[in-house]
Every structure is written in C-alpha cells, then in structure tokens.
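User: quick one
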Amino acid sequence: MRNEAKLLLSLGSFFGLMVAVYWFWSHENAGSVMMFCGMLLCFLPGSYYYFWSRRMKPRAEDDPNATQASGAGIVGTFPGTSIWPFTLGMGAFFVVLALVFGIWLLIPGLGLAFWAIIGGTAEGRRGGPH
Amino acid sequence: MTDVLDPPSVAERHEHHEEHGPTGILKWLTSTDHKVIGMSYTVTSIVMLVIGGAFAELIRAQLTTPNNNLVSLAQYNELFTMHGSVMIYLFMGPFAFGALANVIVPIQIGAPDMAFPRLNALSYWLYLTGAITMLSGFFVAGGAANFGWVAYAPLSNSVNTPGAGADLWIGGLLLTGFSAIFTGVNITATIFYLRAPGMTMFRMPIFTWNMLITAILILLAFPVLTAGLIMLYCDRHFGTHIFSVAGGGVPVLWQNIFWFWGHPEVYILALPVFGMVTEIIAVFSRKPVFGYKGMIFATITIGALSLGVWAHHMFTTGTVLLPFFSIMSLLIAVPTGIKMFNWIGTMWRGEVWFSTAMLMALGFLFTFLIGGLTGIYLASPPLDFFTHDTYFVVAHFHSVVMALMMGGMGALYYWGPKMTGYLLNEKIGKAQFWLLFIGTQVFTFPMYLLGLKGMPRRIGIYPNHPAWQNLNDWATVGAIMIGLSSVCFLVNIMYSWKKYPAGDNPWDGHTLEWFTTSPPPHHNFYRLPQIRSERPTWDYNHPGHSAAAHGHAGEVLIEKEPVS
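Assistant: Done. Structure below.
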C-alpha cells in the first residue's frame, strides 16, 4: 500500500510544483486549472492510500517474503457472465445517437440504461448471475 | 460466484470451476472474463487498423500525381480526418490499453481477473459502439467528419462544419472516451489490489508498470477531452459561445483542452508499447531487464512530464509560453533516452534470438529513435515555426506511430501464443517484418524532405512540382509496402490457424503469464510459483540461478532455444 501511495503523492507533488511555476510564469488560466485538477486527482486517492498504509499491516502482496499460502482465501467476487454490461452499452449507444438523430432515441437509450443499472445491481446483490 | 484460491503452491491441479457458461455469440455478448474481452478488443482494433489503413492507401493514391482527382477535395478531407481518428482513437489506443493490457496485466501479476469484470465488459461495448458511431458518419448526408482529427475551433462549429457526420464523430469519441476512462480505473484497481502474494510493486513486470502509469495518464487526460467534446457539442447545438469569438469565447481554448488530452494521449499510446518491447527484448536476449528500477522511474518521469507539454502543438498560435513548453518537451528526451540505453543494455552480451517478435522490437527501437529525435527538433520553437503544419510534422509522428505499430505487432507475435495457444508462422512473420520496416522508412523519409521543402499537411492536391511529386511517389511506395505487411499478417493468421501448438512457455519467458497454460484457464492459474524477483517463472524454471544473478549479464545462464 505504501508504494502505491508514494507513487500517487509524488506525481501529485510534481504536478503541484509544475502548476506553480507555470501559473506564476504565464498567468494562463485554462492550462493552470487543468494541471491543478490533475494534481488533486493524484492527491485524492494517494492520500487515501497513505492514510490506510499507516493503519493496516502490509498485505501479502506488499511482503517480499510472502508465500503463496499467505494469500489463500477469498480473493473477491468475479461474475462469470453477465448480460448487463452489453445492455448498458447499448443504452449509452442510443443516448449518443439521440444527440445526433433526434431526442426520441433517448427513450430506448435511457430505458435500456435504467434496465441495465437495475438488473446489474440486483445481480451484484445476489452475488452473481447464477 | 465467489472464488477461493487454495494455497496454490500446495495444490497441484485443483478442481477449478471451468466455465460452463454460454458459447458462441452469447459468450461474446455476456462474458466478463478479461481474456475474452481482451480478444474482442484485439479483433475489433485490428479491424479498425485495416479500415484506417485503407483510408491511408487512398490518401497516398490521391497524392501520387499533382492535381489528381481520384477523390474529390471534400472526400479527401473526410479521408485524412477519419484516417487519423480511426488510427488514434479506435486502433492504437484500444489496442494498447484495451487489447493487450486487458489480457496480460492480470496474468502478469497473478490475478484471477480484472478488478471490475463487468465494468471491463462495459468498456468494450462502449468502444465498439463508439467505433460504429464514428464510422457511420460515412453513411449520412454530408459525409463523415472532415475537420481533421483535432477538430480545431472555429472550423468545427456548426457553421463551418454542419451535418451529422461531425456530431457522430463527437458522439463516437464520447463513447470511446468513457470506455478508456473505465479501462483506466480497472487497470489501476487491478494492479493496486489484485497482485499475488510476494508480487510487490517493485517486482511487477515492466509492462505492468507501464500500464499502471498509462492508466493514471488516462484518468488525468481523458476526462478533459470528454469535457471539451461536451462544450463543442453545446457550441454546435445549444448556442453557447465557448469557442467562438463572436460570442466572447476563445477558439484557442479548444486547442488547449484538446492538447491537454492529446499530448498525454501520445504517451498513453507509447508507454504500453515501451512495456511490450521491454518484455520482448529481455526474453529474447535471455537476460533480465537492464536497469529495472531505472526503467520504472523513466516511465514515471515520462508520465509526469507529459502533463506539462501540451502547448508545444500550439507554438505558432502565439498565445503560449514558449520557453516553458520547450523546456518541458526537451526534458522528456531524458527519460526516453534512459529507456533507449536500457534496451540496448538488456541486449548487450545477451544471446539474442532473432524471432519475429524480437525483430519487430528492434524495428521499433530504430524507427522510434528517428521519430524521437525529430521530435526533439520540433520541441524547439524556432524550428517548429519553420516546420509547423508541414509534412515534416506528419513524418515525425508517423515515424513514432509506425514504431509503436511494430512494437504492437511484436507483442502479438510474443503474446499471441499465450492468448490463443498457437504460434504464428515465423517465415511469414519475418516477411511481414521486413515489409513493414523497410516500408516505414521508405514512407517517412520522403515526407521529412517534403516538409523541409515546404509541402503543407492536409492538402489533397499540390502544384506540379517535380521534386514534390517524386518524393510523394516514394512515400506511396512505402505506404503500399506497409499495406502488404498487414496483408502478410492476416495471411499468417489464416495460414497458421491452429497449426503450431505453443505449449505453456514457448519462449522461456520471465513473467507469470508463462507459468499458466496457453490459453489460461478461467481465473487464470491452477497454481502459482513463489515470487521472489521480477521474473518468477524464470526463477522457477532455472532453480540454480535465483534472484542473485539479476542485473549481472555475466552470471546469466545462457540456454539454447527451447523451441524452434
């Protein structure tokens, strides 16, 4: 966890340094705002990882001498198959087509998207498609 | 379904849930297995390569003679726009971070799947529908988008570019943009949370490291593009004036937003290929990666600097801080140079096996060096003012992207056996390499000269000037050779179809993907080796030469080729 935090925090610090130099040199708004937001985007997860890296024991994947047995147990939930990503993708497709060909396409687009969101959430709560 | 990994070092062949799921088209529609999604990405992106390549051949055919009228000027605008868009948005990016990263990254770190399998599937569907949306512009009145792949304001507003084609371009890019963002989230979470025990950050293969930095860059860059596209759409349809002078907006703001995405995007395309090439060179030189940590820090540095160089595409607008962007751009040459030396250092005193994958990697080194060095020229404002919007720039980035394509092809030869279980034919592969390599140089060198002679980009006809025509004809010859190399690749796939079984580890590989079967089982591993260095599979297969030998060329066991 600590190396992940260090990576993001050091990237964020570098962007912070860069935006400081850039802003005081150029006084240009758009690029400064974008770089500043880039810095925040690194600090947000980076400080979260840093917070936890100080409060938890190193995980098996952070331990250079870990044996495979130390990682045994439930790794996570990995649904085997699911139709909902496809449904949601088609919904997004129709929503984007509505931007071009007419607002009526929002009806199938948003319909498919909501159906997929509800279906996918329900599937996740059941713990899988089966 | 909850997946339990038994202590894999103990369990020999643990009864795993094999997939009982659907087959055929239903499998393609519903699978959330990262390998199936990765294969879908691979096939789709290669289809996009063929489409984009066909546009390129048409462009080169149009330019063989001055004042040619093979295609109309309006069609020519659509062709170069869609050639750039298809190659950048729909082929190279999804190929790099969708296709190969999706299949290889989880296996390299010993994970059973991506962190968010259903989000991963959604990424693919957004990519496919985005590609269909963008390309369907050819079938609407007014044709496809024709404002160049950069869509500069005010050319891209509703007065200068009316019609559905441009909107379809924006819509397609919104979809593929979200697909990229989701993939970025997925890769980052997978690498941070699903590594196998003992796989510390500084034991991850270089490819995985590069994909991590790529994923972070995706998260930094793509939302900016998406926001810019929404603004552009509002300008076109809702009467806002964000990019139009008439309403008090700033056209150059579009360029700032676009290139704030666009330059990191270059590294989003390049870093994965750097990683692929690193893996290929190390394995086929039979040595560990030279300067492993230096490689990682070079990658991080490239990623960090890439956020501060966008305006070197805008030197001639007169609105940017020239020294800042020139310095930052020139600085990128330093980590890239470190990588170049490390690649050479990896080969140094190794027993180099010139397989197709290795040849492709070497072709990458050569071509990328040319593209990189001309990039250094362009980072210097005085030179950039002279060559801006000429064929010199076109030649520069085609050297770069053709190098990336060679690296990507090498990766297909290297990892293809892992993904499918079957090797490709080496003879056809070598023919493909030489056509691609020589074709690329024949294609780009005349364009450098054309640029220095002043030929502008994006012109469908040019005045009758013998020097220009000769050089253009050579470039067309090169383009035809590149086209033939792609034909070789497709022929090779058909010729080698299920002909040469690969086995689990055909190259005596270093990293975890070569420890499992080819293709890997559902959830990837029956068992895992102890991970004590950055190349666990090699350690397992060569117990006498443990981690102590790493980084020292003289101590490395040199073996004969395990298969021919």
